[in-house]
Description:
This protein is about 40% helix and about 20% strand. It is of the alpha/beta class. It has one domain: 3-Layer(aba) Sandwich (Protocatechuate 4,5-dioxygenase, Chain B). Strands 1, 2, 3, 4, 5, 6, 7, 8, 9, 10, 11 and 12 form a twelve-stranded mixed sheet that branches. Helix 1 (about 15-30) crosses helix 2 and helix 8 (about 225-235) runs antiparallel to helix 9 (about 245-250). The chain is globular, with a radius of gyration of 18 Å. The termini are far apart.
Amino acid sequence: MVRRPVVAGQFYAYDPRELEKQIESCFLSPNGPGVLPVSKRKGICIGIIAPHAGYVFSGPCAAWAYKELAESMLPDIFFVLGTDHVGRGVTSTTLEDWETPLGIVKVDRAMAEQLIECSRLRADAHLHAMEHSIEVQLPFLQFITRDKERLRIIPISVSRDIDLKAFALDIKDVLIAANKTAAFIASSDFTHYGRSYGFVPFTSDVAKRMYELDRKALGFIKRLDPEGFLSYVAETGATICGARPIALLMYLVKAKRVKLLQYYTSADIIGDYNNAVGYAAISFE
């Protein structure tokens, strides 16, 4: 069985050639890094936060994060940490491979099964059937991977039912036992403002105050403070849809350097602050 794409043709191009061009244009965009990934550098990128909206909006922001991954030593496996938009409340993986217009992305079934055995993670393909937060990351991951046959992922939809700190330890233990290296991708947009999102805590100086709301959240991330980050989200009601994947990533990485690569909002693109979403690209080394 293969998990088929559900937002191809909506969030990103359906045709493989058009999708390749679309991703290239994200890298070359004024809101993107402006160049395609180049040769490897000395640093090792162990994690990124990247947005998961339609590529026309968040693709250039995501390109910043994937450029960091592309120019780093690629790991044995990528953990793609998605959110639970529907709110089913179950942290889950799927043992199915994932299809995109660019081909098949294989799941490391053996490692996923080991993680299921030693943690509260469940395998449930149904919970991933319509969730887009992992799917939207995969074409970028395929684009930057030099040896696509070697590409392996573990997709995890992170919900509210699991102790994130304990789960991070379980993941680390499985990686050590398998003697494999990993990088972690937390898929998340930032504040969703407007009546369409049920979040209107202010009606004046929207651009400034939305930036400020996300700036403070980003501060906790840059300090690698998952508890402070989650408390801030709870206290402010900030509608950061992937807050728990982000917190899990922070528990997982021992980064010496955290870089905010890009931040902008959908309103910076289309000029509409009645309903706007923040996007951030962050790397961990």
